[in-house]
Design a protein that fits this description.
With about 110 residues, chain A is an all-beta fold. Chain A has strands at about 5, 10-15, 20-25, 30-35, 45-50, 55, 65, 75-80, 85-95, 100-105, 110. Chain B has no helices and eleven strands. In chain B, the strands form two sheets. In chain B, strands 2, 4, 5, 9, 10 and 11 form a six-stranded mixed beta sheet that branches. Chain B has a five-stranded antiparallel beta sheet with strand order 1-3-8-7-6, with no helix packed on it. The chains are: A mainly beta (about 110), B mainly beta (about 110). Chains A and B meet through strand 4, strand 5, strand 9 and strand 10 of A and strand 4, strand 5, strand 9 and strand 10 of B.
């Protein structure tokens, strides 16, 4: 079955450490997204990619980095520069064209100790 | 001001009631999505709209492009409909996808 896989589901890190969240899709989608969600709040856009080897900053890109070397993969690195990284992170992909359907991963919950 | 505004933020209903959740946006869009988020955090897509109206079971979604407004209706609401409902818009240019804050719906038996 096609879908999006995020890993890990839960992650703990110490302050000052970088951590990379994985997002893989087998839906042949060009567009992929990373969002952050804090308790009781909406999803905020971190980065998005329309095509391989291209990505754009979202509203809260500071302290994060991404890569898009393969169509299937869009990993997110939370760097030590991110001041408040504890959050729920969601990856999404979108089908072809403007009317493509959205698919979401199950999310990764990052806690900084 | 957010590009996407939802109302109400919280909604409590009795089982069987007709529910309406509203979404207004301020940018040109090519599509609007209605999504459902469950307590565990998982999100599922309910509708994708670029015009008109769509219906799936007890859920109905409408969009008025000229007024930059969309509504999600739930008929004969049920406790299992309790979730957060989120509106998201795809901008006309590029692939940027922006979300509303969500509406927490609680349906009591």
């Amino acid at each position: 079955d096609g879908g999006i896989t995020q890993s890990p589901k839960y992650l703990f890190r110490k302050e000052g450490q970088n951590v990379t969240l994985s997002c893989e899709q087998n839906l042949n989608h060009d567009a992929m997204y990373w969002y952050r969600q804090d308790p009781g709040q909406g999803l905020r856009l971190i980065y998005y990619s329309q095509i391989v080897n291209d990505f754009q900053k979202g509203d809260i890109a500071e302290g994060y980095s991404v890569s898009r070397e393969k169509k299937e993969s869009f990993p997110l690195t939370v760097t030590s520069a991110q001041k408040n990284p504890t959050a729920f992170y969601l990856c999404a992909s979108r089908g072809q064209g403007d009317t493509g359907e959205l698919f979401f991963g199950e999310g990764s919950r990052l806690t900084v100790l | 001001k957010n590009e996407v505004e939802q109302s109400p933020q919280n909604l409590t209903a009795q089982e069987g009631e007709f529910i309406t959740i509203n979404c207004s946006y301020s940018v040109g869009i090519s599509a609007l999505h209605w999504l459902q988020q469950h307590p565990g955090g998982g999100i599922v897509s309910l509708f994708m709209l670029s015009s008109g109206k769509k219906k799936h079971g007890r859920l109905i979604a409408t969009i008025n492009i000229q007024e930059k407004h969309s509504s999600l209706h739930i008929t004969a609401s049920h406790p299992r409909d309790s979730a957060v409902y989120i509106c998201a818009v795809l901008r006309l240019s590029g692939s940027r996808l922006t979300f509303g804050e969500g509406t927490q719906l609680t349906v009591n038996p």
